[in-house]
Specification:
The protein is built from nine helices and twelve strands. The chain is of the alpha/beta class. Strands 4-3-2-5-6-7-9-12-10-11 form a ten-stranded mixed sheet. α1 packs parallel to α7, α2 packs parallel to α4 and α3 packs across α4.
């Protein structure tokens, strides 16, 4: 089944990267926007926002930011109320994104609001962020109608010559292509992997890198359906488009492939952006060592881990 985007639509951005993506998505969809962050520098004057205050703590943990988010839960719920669809933009490699995303997605589920979640996962060398990102993604997937995941690490593996900044730019651009198509393309009601390539490549090389990125996240037999966005399609020879369509159909199963054309002004920008729905395990399930435990056997699933100030006067005994 596919998810249907219904108006009115609210785009929510979490933290620094999420807020930038949300503002771009707002302009593209002509929708409302909300920014939620523990850092006031992420806010834009004309965009509604919710500040998650950690008070005097300069470098708060993910758990502290999450606990502080619950303190402003009613304010967030009031701003979400009345919308049929929420599009959540979060960078789960960042503290704010991984802390706040499970809380906001939980609120959307409780309000029976259609939630489309976009999540960016960390690089492999960001070892201190991998666990928290895996825990957050598991909860976001559980609360969302559909979740679209882009893995920075697999993008870098496919293009080891790229800098982290270049990876961010490619990832952001790919996510915007999918956002732009929400009104005209169907998104699967499951977890989907977003894959792409760097600019300036031949279109067939771009497809190869997109597939390599996809299979770096999930085994080939787990791919149920793939949609190709051919960026700059109006400038690409029809024979080439037919070639990559046949190639993709042969790899991911002909009945499960679909191609969607998006226009672009210059041939140099031509590349492939692929969205593939996944059934079964992905590599992100291994980010949380306890993630294999079924939800029904988990005692503390209902509320994600967070730090709260109980204000208990406990004195040290010696």
């Amino acid at each position: 089944m596919s998810f249907q985007v219904k108006e009115p639509v609210l785009v929510i951005g979490l933290g620094g990267i999420g807020s930038k993506l949300a503002i771009d998505a707002k302009n593209s969809l002509n929708s409302d926007c909300l920014i939620i962050s523990n850092d006031k520098n992420d806010f834009v004057s004309e965009i509604p926002s919710v500040h998650v205050s950690t008070e005097s703590v300069v470098n708060p943990s993910v758990q502290l930011i999450r606990g502080s988010t619950y303190k402003v839960a009613e304010e967030i719920k009031s701003k979400i109320s009345g919308y049929s669809t929420v599009i959540l933009m979060s960078n789960l490699a960042g503290k704010a994104g991984s802390a706040i995303a499970p809380v906001v997605s939980e609120m959307c589920k409780e309000a029976d609001t259609g939630l489309v979640s976009f999540a960016i996962m960390p690089f492999k060398y960001e070892k201190d962020r991998i666990f928290n990102s895996g825990v957050s993604l598991k909860r976001v997937r559980e609360n969302s109608k559909c979740t679209i995941v882009l893995d920075n690490d697999s993008l870098l593996e496919s293009n080891p010559d790229l800098s982290p900044k270049a990876c961010y730019e490619i990832a952001n651009s790919a996510m915007m292509h999918v956002v732009n198509s929400l009104g005209s393309s169907e998104i699967s009601n499951e977890t989907s992997i977003l894959s792409t390539s760097k600019d300036g490549q031949h279109i067939e090389d771009s497809l190869r890198d997109s597939l390599k990125m996809l299979y770096g996240n999930a085994p080939p037999n787990s791919v149920k359906r793939s949609m190709l966005y051919v960026v700059g399609g109006s400038n690409i020879p029809v024979g080439v488009i037919n070639s990559i369509t046949n190639l993709t159909a042969g790899i991911v199963n002909e009945s499960n492939s679909q191609i969607d054309m998006t226009s672009s002004s210059s041939a140099e920008e031509s590349k492939v952006v692929m969205v593939s729905s996944i059934q079964g395990m992905t590599k992100f399930d291994n980010y949380d060592p306890l993630g294999m435990i079924p939800q029904e056997n988990t005692l503390d699933w209902s509320t994600p881990d967070c730090s709260i100030d109980c204000e208990l006067d406990l004195y040290q005994l010696e």
